[in-house]
């Protein structure tokens, strides 16, 4: 039977396990939407209000399901909205498939300077933020190219790919059967050489003060059982990166929370004293390494990663273990089996003391009754109402710091999504949309600042239309916090273009037909959250917060010095 390119594309996606596509239609891709309308039982298209949302939603969908996320947009101005989401996915090693339509191939000479409406070299624009870009030259190659693109995205170090499909390919017909495949990741799991495993275990057993650093690769590999077994059996403390948050339950006595400038002081103190570091799925990024000052040269580093290019890219590991995190940890556990290795009591006492100090400080801050509301206290109100199966999504800026440092995860697994790959504003609500599609019926709290929430307030229409149980908690301090703090600490307190003005986002939400609240007293927040979590509906809770509270360690330290009159110029973290 002859089928047009839209049917070939849709059937190829279905045969690779794709269930959802986030996007917005355009004339060049009408054949795609024709096919989607005929296969609603097998694949769902989610209409968003801005194509930027589609990229972030596909990203979070992939993180939660461990299947490729898919998004689409029309040629030109639709495609130009994708770089933000692509950059986040690329830097966070998340596999997404971006489908962009294009003009008919015989119009290629008309694309320069807008001779043909919306025309431009969109693949070259998207290429820097992808593992690979693909153009489909013919209907006969359509299924093969899409299948190859999915394979590329989920193999090795995962990442985003782009497939461009010209209008004439969409409208052409063929009798060829679409290909089958898988969009699950990791697609392949490889082990490290046994000789290197033996070296790593010998170094680990010689450690007096070992520590495990869990990066985002632990989540991508789903190495939860293995990291718990290694930590619990051998009493090795664990710190995580922001993307690794949730690798083990943060209520575990051995978990010290997030390491980095948006993390806990106790994680830094313990990590600084470690003699052997087992880093898993970790790319030695700016935040978690305190601007590449950690690990120090006198600390031994065992590094596990699926990407061999990561070894030595920034820091040279003493032992590099190339392989899938879960498989390599299994090898380490097998090599350790039967040994009498266990962390010393002295080291565990250090861990206990430092964690207790931080918990006391955190409890004091989170118990604040101040007005304006302290963000720490607002986060605690969220924690108090969260169930074990609820999800949290965060925006960039201070939102990631408040959640990363003060939001304690009670269970192990992917329960929180933070945008650390690119750290661009405007991701919390789109992330929540992706989670809602990945886990139907789940309750989701999306945390953002007022600056970030302003980026995609229009997506409230999407939440209303789909009636998704997403609670948007907006920390509203009327400023761009990160920028204002940087200007304050570096340029003699001269501020420009950081004052946003204060807006009632709860009232704005009501204009979209969803529940909105404007909260000025911390005592009111808990009951409102409890009510909305029980209601299973979209809502916006606008919380008026104190602009002079900061989650970043450098800013907190600088502000303490400022109060003492000793502050100097600070790096713009």
UniProtKB/TrEMBL annotation:
Q: Which Pfam families match?
A: TPP_enzyme_C, TPP_enzyme_M, TPP_enzyme_N
- Check the record and name the InterPro entries matching this protein: DHS-like_NAD/FAD-binding_dom, THDP-binding, Thiamin_PyroP_enz_cen_dom, Thiamin_PyroP_enz_TPP-bd_dom, TPP-bd_CS, TPP_enz, TPP_enzyme_TPP-bd
Q: Does the keyword Transmembrane apply?
A: no
Q: Which residues form the Thiamine pyrophosphate enzyme N-terminal TPP-binding domain?
A: 4-109
- Residues in domain Thiamine pyrophosphate enzyme TPP-binding? 395-543
Query: Which superkingdom?
Result: Bacteria
Q: Name the cofactor(s).
A: thiamine diphosphate
User: Per the record, GO CC terms?
Assistant: acetolactate synthase complex
Query: Does the entry feature the keyword Ligase, yes or no?
Result: no
The alphabetical list of record keywords is: Thiamine pyrophosphate
GO terms in the biological process aspect are:
isoleucine biosynthetic process; L-valine biosynthetic process
Database matches in Gene3D superfamilies:
3.40.50.970, TPP-binding domain
Identify the residues that the record assigns to the Thiamine pyrophosphate enzyme central domain, covering every copy: 197-332
- Could you tell me one molecular function GO term of this UniProt entry? thiamine pyrophosphate binding
Which family does the record claim for this protein?
Belongs to the TPP enzyme family.
For this entry, the protein name equals Acetolactate synthase-1/2/3 large subunit
Source species of the chain? Psychrobacillus psychrotolerans
